[in-house]
Design a protein that fits this description.
Number of strands: 5
Shape: elongated
CATH class of the largest domain: Alpha Beta
Number of helices: 9
Strand content: 5-15%
Strand order of the largest sheet: 2-1-3-4-5
Number of domains: 2
Structural class: alpha/beta
Order of helices and strands: EHEHEHEHEHHHHH
CATH topology of the largest domain: Rossmann fold
CATH architecture of the largest domain: 3-Layer(aba) Sandwich
Distance between the termini: 21 Å
Oligomer: single chain
């Protein structure tokens, strides 16, 4: 698990120059170090040279090799890197192949900048990568809620009944995959019989 990295390193492999430029302009101001390349083979060369990336964004349709074929080769070099697949032509077959190759997200083109930002933040959190202060807060709150719940021997189902929140949402909050609203935190704090400020730990 990687925690507290100063900058998220993102590798983009897409033969569309405009997509690469757009993603660089979108993600760089967010504190990401973005490397964009148009030749799939160049990406493999960089990985073989032990270049480290936290997230890769791969286009599914490229000349010579498609994203799934490229990903099969990438997985032989790096099993852990988080991968986001982009495609203008989604299909059940390619989605299934992507899942089998441990793809973190499968996005359809065109996509909004906000969707991409949210996807990258979610993928990073799932991988245990913390970059933004906001993400650290989500992780701290989730950890404190889980600790308090375990101390009181409460299941997520019991918490759901006490808070009127779904088990799925409670689980996502604990795993820092979803940010809790103030209203949700208030309900959770009441259910755990703690002050809401205690859920923030030492943050």
């Amino acid at each position: 698990m990687i925690a507290g990295v100063s900058r998220l390193r993102v590798l983009i492999i897409d033969d569309d120059v405009k997509v690469c430029e757009y993603l660089q302009e979108l993600l760089t101001p967010d504190g990401c170090e973005v490397v964009a390349i148009h030749e799939p083979e160049q990406g493999l060369t960089m990985l073989k040279a032990k270049e480290t990336f936290h997230i890769m964004i791969l286009d599914l349709k490229m000349p010579g090799i498609n994203g799934i074929q490229l990903l099969e080769q990438i997985r032989k070099i790096d099993r852990d890197v988080a991968v986001i697949i982009l495609t203008a032509y989604p299909s059940l077959e390619s989605a299934t192949d992507a899942i089998n190759l441990d793809v973190s997200a499968y996005m359809q083109k065109p996509f909004s900048g906000e969707d991409m930002r949210e996807t990258i933040a979610r993928v990073a959190r799932k991988k245990g990568i913390v970059v933004r202060r906001e993400d650290e807060l989500h992780i701290t709150i989730g950890k404190r809620i889980r600790e308090c719940r375990k101390e009181k021997a409460l299941t997520l189902k019991q918490m759901g009944r006490r808070t009127n929140l779904s088990v799925s949402l409670l689980s996502q909050i604990e795993r820092a995959e979803s940010s809790a609203s103030v209203s949700s935190l208030y309900k959770i704090a009441n259910a755990l019989d703690v002050r809401i400020v205690e859920l923030f730990g030492d943050f």
